[in-house]
Design goal:
The complex is a heterodimer of chains A (about 170) and B (about 100). Chain A has helices spanning about 1-20, 25-45, 50-75, 80-85, 90-110, 125-135, 140-160, and one strand spanning about 120. By secondary structure, chain A is mainly α. Chain B is mainly alpha-helical and about 100 residues long.
Chain lengths: ~170, ~100
Amino acid sequence: MPILFYLSSAVAIIATIMVITRYHPIHALLYLVVSFLAIAMVFLSLGAPFAAALEVIVYAGAIMVLFIFVVMMLNLGKETAAQEKDWLRPAVWIGPGILTLVLLMEMSILLLAPPQRNVAIAVVTPRQVALSLYGEYIIAVELIGFLLTTGIVGAAHIGKQKKKSLHRFLQA
Amino acid sequence: MAPISAHAVLIVAAILFVLGLAGVLTRKNIIFMLISIEIMLNAAGLAFIAAGSRWQQPDGQIMYLFILAMAAAEVSVALAMVLQIHHQHKTLDVEDLRELKD
């Protein structure tokens, strides 16, 4: 439904603007959850219910939990917010802001030039996605399995706190 | 049902991508830069979903699945690196991390 799409994309854009302007990390993360939920609604209105469910479960669930745990472990609080406030002066953001705005305008002009086509909303069911995923895309599924395995091993290896061990002759 | 213009979806994806790009360019804290990268990946996924529903094919959702798995792997490794950096340098400022340059 168009009204659902326009409303939820407006919510997503406003929440994303709030994410990139917050000083406190937890506030930014909570606005990011709102943004992800709004994008899940956009997916639903475009006829992709499977992608919408995955957006809520993986992005708004798993990835956000990882971020919040890291912010809790590093104990980022008021000092970080004050430091961010010090860093985020207009002199810092005005240059990148103008440049990215120019890029967005170019993209919009390119997109609005050709004749408009409409998305006919028909639901692509999870059954179709699964048949295609385990049919023609099976190699890519295996490769993404490799990627996730290396991600787990790499995270476990990098995140390990190494104990500094000296040779027994060097120990005091 | 009244249709949605495909260009409107792509413009929403472009706006979200540009917001994420501006976040990466302006922030100096690694956590905020990672958050902005997540926003950009999500915008790319939105464009794939829009293309998939424009042609009524499942391929767009499959590419979105791959982006999702890639984002999960990336964020786990990156957050482990953030923990390690905070442990060793006691800061999250990217400008303090220039051991490779010196």
